[in-house]
Amino acid sequence: MLSDVTAPHEAGIGDGPASLAALFAAQAAATPDAIAVRTGERVLTYGQLDLWSGRLAAQLADRGVRPGGVVALAADRGPAALAGVLAVLRTGAGHLGLDPAIPARRQRRMIEETAPDCVLAEPGLDQFPTLDAPRVRLTEPTRGPVLAPRDPADDDPSAVFHIVYTSGTTGDPKGVRIGCRAVLNRLRWMWRDHPFEPGAVLAVQKSVSLVASPWELLGGLLRGVPSVFLTREEVLDPALFADAFERERVTHLFLTPHLVTGLLDEADRRGGLAHRPVLVTSGADALPTATVHRFRATFPGTTLLNLYGMTETASNVAAYDTAALAPDADRVPVGKAVAGASLTVHDRYGRLLPPGVVGEVWVAGTPLALGYVRAAGDRFTTGDDGVRRYRTGDRGRLSAGGDLEIVGRVDNQVKIRGYRVELEEIEATLRKNPSVAEAGVFVTEEQGEPRLVACVTEAAEADPAALRAFLRDRLPDYMLPSRIVVLPNLPLGPNGKLDRVVLGTIAENAAQGPRERFAPADETESVVLGLWERLLGTAPATPDDNFFDAGGHSLLAVRFANRLETAFGKRISLRRLLGSPTFSGVVELCRDRDGDAEAGA
User: Fold this and answer.
1) Of 106, 236, 407, 529, which is least packed with CB atoms within 10 Å of its CB?
2) Residue 513 scores a pLDDT above 60
3) Which pairing describes strands 380-382 and 388-398: parallel, antiparallel, or unpaired?
4) Rounded distance between C-alpha atoms, residue 233 and residue 554, angstroms
5) What pLDDT is stored for residue 6 in this prediction?
6) Residue 20: closest CA among 183, 248, 243, 263
7) φ/ψ of residue 372, rounded to 5
8) Cβ 228 vs Cβ 203: under 8 Å
9) Over the range 58-68, which residues count as b (16 or more CB within 10 Å of their CB) and which as e?
């Protein structure tokens, strides 16, 4: 028997309108006074959100946006982002989500490639002053006409919901066109297999730039379920996240494994949480077996799904209910095909492999994206049978029972904090710096998580701190190397290609030499220095060293704040830590007793 497991076709799941915009219009007409969105102290009803998005849609249409067009949507997470998505839907166009956390240079490349018909931006987030395209301010209009939905039917295979970007091997990110049909199909699968119960509340914490955002933005909204927007600080800080989770009585969460672990750690710190979720879905990265067992002990009776998908497949194509995980399991499967997907495992020649044999995972079916904005490096293929498939690059095997297990990659793509990263893109970006001749990047594990390390050879004198600043201006936070090492040359294998295994050994040996460090002046500095060194793998050379220049990132900052609280018995908010990221700044935060009240606030 060959490894070909296909889920039932899901396009017809559920009753009612067959388009996303029409589904929202029907819900708004049926329950105009019901709560649609909550964020902080603000509450929006369906009627208010319908009016907001309708007025924005009229402005977009007035500026030439038509069905089949593209709107650049520059928005932070919040009700405005949702109103923007709904407004674009009403015009029949698709949107390019632009998160303010994405470096401006990277956003400009995305804009240049997609050539949007209009920019819909929150005040201060329009990064494209030279772009010759009409603008609409993403604020809440108090007057003006309302555009009735005129979207293309979602069974139109060419209708685009959004364009999302992923890392590229050539140094340029790749734009993926996600169809409305695939998005609606994914929503209807969840509505059928995991229906909302009375009292459900869905948390929204994904950026509009991510392929997983439609479920959070529309999954509850189109079914009459209130959605709660979490702030960036609440997503990053486990204590604030747990506070929001309990305060808002959230029942449905889509979390990366890191966020699942953060919620469990906070539950342990508090001796348990008073509120229990109904459904938690985890994806974007491997879910450890230990995390599953901890979750089941902390939240007995709560469904924890391990989801599998990629940017090219409208988010998810497989799901596994972790209640079935054996106590002695070595790995958490990603489960069986869902939402009309077909999962197959192939050898290097494209031949199907039997269950239990490891090969490359291919995906076909309704969830497939429409394709890339540019066809270069296309992984989509159409076989002699006329079936279009996507070659994922994941190595996996199917069990006799149909559960898929992912065991690695066939290329140099890695997952960092839930994001897909091509090592070649980081290398290509480094080579654009005039001081760099050659660059190589590898992944190592530190503090129990994957870290990126970059090695460069010099064309001119290279300063690692300056190179990191160069990358920060061009790459998102999760693609920044934790260390940059200058080497005389990079090791090549017999085929003339970079040998990443040998590179890792050389880089580690180069880092073993004596390092400059300063002597702590007192016990507070000594404790902070020790925590800094354990987290980053290196001690600060001066009191002015910056946590983020030394390889830190937002998740490490959360861990740093938690360990500082344990050491000093006081809570330092993530916001204050991000505002004072130097060693001396952190020490002052630890000494500042007057800041406790502000930190708690």
Assistant:
1) 407
2) no
3) antiparallel
4) 10
5) 61
6) 183
7) -85, 155
8) yes
9) bbbbebebeee
At 229-253, the pLDDT tens digits run: 998 888 888 888 899 999 999 999 9
Tell me how far the alpha carbon of residue 371 is from its chain's centroid.
20
601: pLDDT strictly greater than 50: no
Q: How do residues 171-210 score in pLDDT, each as one tens digit? A: 677 899 999 999 999 999 999 999 999 999 999 998 899 9
Which residues neighbour 272 within 8 Å (Cβ) at sequence distance 6 or greater?
Answer: 298
Q: Which two tokens stand for residue 261?
A: 């672990």
Identify the burial level of 11 via C-beta atoms within 10 angstroms of its C-beta, where 0-12 means exposed, 13-18 middle and 19 or more buried.
middle
Tell me the residue type at 450. P
Q: What average pLDDT does the segment 72-97 reach?
A: 95
Helix pair angle (554-568, 257-269), 10° resolution: 10
- Measuring CA to CA, which residue among 379, 383, 387, 370 is closest to residue 420? 379
Alpha-carbon span 414 to 86, nearest angstrom? 33
Task: Calculate mean pLDDT across residues 502-529.
Answer: 76
Q: How many CB atoms lie within 10 A of CB 580?
A: 16
| SS3 (DSSP) at 31 | coil
CA angle at 154 for the pair 80 and 384, rounded to the nearest 5°: 125
Q: Is residue 40 left, alpha or beta, with left meaning phi > 0 and alpha meaning psi from -120 to 50?
A: left
From the number of C-beta atoms within 10 Å of its C-beta (0-12, 13-18, 19+), residue 493 rates as exposed
Structure-block tokens of residue 343 = 């999962």
- Residues 334-350, mean pLDDT to the nearest whole number: 92
Q: Any idea which residue has 């960092």 for tokens? A: 416
Structure tokens at 84: 């923007």
Structure-token pair, residue 433: 């710096």
Cα separation values, 20 from 27, 77, 138, 154, 180, Å: 11, 20, 21, 7, 8
For residue 48, give both structure tokens: 């208010």
- Measured between alpha carbons, how far apart are the two ends of the chain, in Å? 60
Contacts of 118 by beta carbon, 8 Å cutoff, 6+ apart: 60, 63, 64, 65, 69, 71, 72, 133, 134, 135, 136
Looking up tokens 């939240």 gives: 299
User: Dihedral through CA 364, CA 366, CA 367, CA 373, nearest 10?
Assistant: 90
Amino acid at 61: A
Structure tokens at 497: 């290609």
Both tokens assigned to 352:
């199907």
pLDDT tens track for 249-263: 999 999 888 889 889
How far CA 191 is from CA of 74, 158, 215, 218, 291, in Å, comes to: 29, 24, 10, 11, 26
Give one DSSP letter per residue of 514-573, joined into a string. ----PPPSSHHHHHHHHHHHHHHSS--SSTT-BTTTTT--HHHHHHHHHHHHHHHSS---
